[in-house]
Amino acid sequence: MSAEAMSAEASAPTASEYIVHHLTHWQNKPQTEIVDFSVFNIDSLFFSILLGVLGCFFLWKAARTATSGAPGRFQAAVEILIEMVDGQAKAIVHNAKSRKLVAPLALTVFVWIFLLNAMDLLPLDLLPTIWGWIYGAAGHDPHHAYLRVVPTADLSVTMGLSVSVLFICLFYNIKIKGVGGWAHELVSAPFGTSKNPIFAVILGVINIAEQLISFVAKTVSHGMRLFGNMYAGELVFMLIALLGGSWAFSAEPGSLMLLLLHVVAGWAWAVFHIIIILLQAFVFMMLTLVYIGQAHDAH
Questions:
Q1: Under 8 Å CB-to-CB from 160, ≥6 apart: which residues?
Q2: Which contiguous run of DSSP H or E holds residue 220?
Q3: Cα(115)–Cα(212) distance, rounded to whole angstroms?
Q4: Is 93 in contact with 154 (CB distance < 8 Å)?
Q5: Of 113, 120, 116, which Cα lies nearest the Cα of 151?
Q6: What is the reported pTM?
Q7: Residue 4: pLDDT over 50
Q8: What is the pLDDT of residues 210-268, one digit of tens each?
Q9: Virtual torsion, Cα 234, 236, 242, 244, nearest 10 deg
């Protein structure tokens, strides 16, 4: 092994160091083991806001340039998307007045989450490397330049989205049923009531507990499903990237097989992952519609 190869191998990070570095967020201050709500993942916030603005811009541009004649490919794609979302909203939320807000909300959720998920298709080290150059040029240690570019692989983002859906559901529960109607539903659904005062109290407590557990379970599963799928996909891309890294820092002639495996596996997983990012955006949107639709239903 040449001196150059030995030097490169010595400076190369280990597999665990590489993965830990890519799984570390750019934060406003070092995170401790104690829960600290003043710690923010700046990278997740930055890319979420940026992609949200870009998504709104493209939808606005499609609406602004829409024509009544033969549509272009971009306008046709947006019209198909809007018709799909509107059709799902009509099938699930039967209140026409509510759909004026719910349908655009569902469209926003789908487009935004799709764009957030699509960040996983960028080369894994592209943006972190660029950020490392900028961080180093500013006089800091580039090894401490942390950056995660897939916001939906951040649990705080996905849970924030699911909690927002919970608040919307609570809003429609009160708006459609009234405070009294919703309060009555809390103590009467799903096990009903009893004329016996003792059983009435017992059933009321059980009904309230069931309703609260239902709200918590739906909210947690809503956010965890999206996070779990995107986090797993990000890890797979890291493992595939390690194959290329093993080839780059190896002087063995047989290491070319690692490069070939890196290219083939990376291409195959990226093609498959396109389905995942689209499906997860659709599932999150559909569950949002279902939960809001359930808030309109009386028990």
A1: 223
A2: helix 197-248
A3: 32
A4: no
A5: 116
A6: 0.89
A7: no
A8: 899 999 999 999 999 999 999 999 999 999 988 877 776 665 656 677 778 888 888 99
A9: -100
SS3 181: helix
pLDDT for 256: 75
CA distance 293 to 285: 12
Which residues, 6+ apart, have CB-to-CB distance to 256 below 8 Å?
247
User: What confidence tens digit (pLDDT) does each residue in 62-94 have?
Assistant: 888 888 878 888 889 999 999 999 999 999 999
pLDDT band with cut points at 50, 70 and 90 for residue 3: very low
Can you say whether residue 192 is alpha, beta or left, with left for phi > 0 and alpha for psi between -120 and 50 degrees? left
| C-beta separation of 284 from 116 below 8 A | no
Give the C-alpha separation, 75 to 77, whole Å.
5
Question: What gap in Å lies between CA 12 and CA 20, rounded to an integer?
Answer: 14
| Cis amide prior to 123 (ω within 30 degrees) | no
DSSP 27: B
Q: Which amino acid is located at 26 in the chain?
A: W
Tell me the catalytic residues.
221, 225, 229
Round to whole Å and give the CA distance between 18 and 125.
11
Domain ranges in the chain?
40-145+154-168+223-296
d(CA 289, CA 165): 9
The DSSP secondary-structure symbol of 13 reads: P
Whole-angstrom Cα Rg for the chain: 25
What end-to-end distance do the CA atoms of the chain give, in Å?
74
Residue 154, number of CB atoms within 10 A of its CB: 22
Place of tokens 């030995």: 6
